[in-house]
# Entry
Amino acid sequence: ALPFALAGLEIVRRRDGASAALLGAWTVLPVINVLLQGKPWPYLWLPIYAPLAVLTVVGMHGMLAPLLEGRRAEWSGSRPLLLTLAAVLMVSAILPPANWLLDSRSLLRAGPAAATYDAGAFGQHGRGDASLSAIAESIRERTGPGDRVLSWGMTPTVNFLSGRSSPSRFGVDLPLESGGGHPLQRAYRRELMAALHATPPKFVVVDIPECDLPVSDHGIQDFPELAGFLRERYQLETEVGYRREGQPGCVRVLRASNGTATRR
# Structure
């Protein structure tokens, strides 16, 4: 679609420079945002789709206008180029759905192919034994409605699927990890620790980058109060490594105990 989008931008520029500048900025700013963050997560590209769609439609209409208006003489000279661009656009539109269809067939079939696809595409969010849903089911079976579960990471999936509340109002660790010692971060951390001491969770689920991180602190070195709390009161029950879209990860389940966290 990019050739049509570029043609559309040129058509808009000839008719209204201000509108072209707006659409151009709308297209470029999301790219700058991704570059500044250095994290090309798929959802960061969503703002670029709308201006690209508008420019693509304008470009296609402008390039096909001679044909639509019956001016075949003007269109005939550009016919090979237009047909090539149309073919490229059609193939580009067909390939992703076709790939998703093939993946869906693999996922729906029982057996190793489905398990491999599920693990590679969804990682800890899949349906296998190494998933958060499996961990949540295990925790739900061994806890009551009044028990608390702390999820340390960027997903409260286990709390939601198990039906077990967090001991505090923090569903994810972002406000507790970000801030670099800001007074608000320190206040949040004090609030979390007070909640943990008042209502200790029966289980703690830690989502970390890799399983090689020390059990002594679970990669929470910059939050010594929480690391010490977990070290003194919890032991490692389960450790599950996964890979999602080529990126490694690890989920640890800690169970409340009177001992020190040890590997099993």
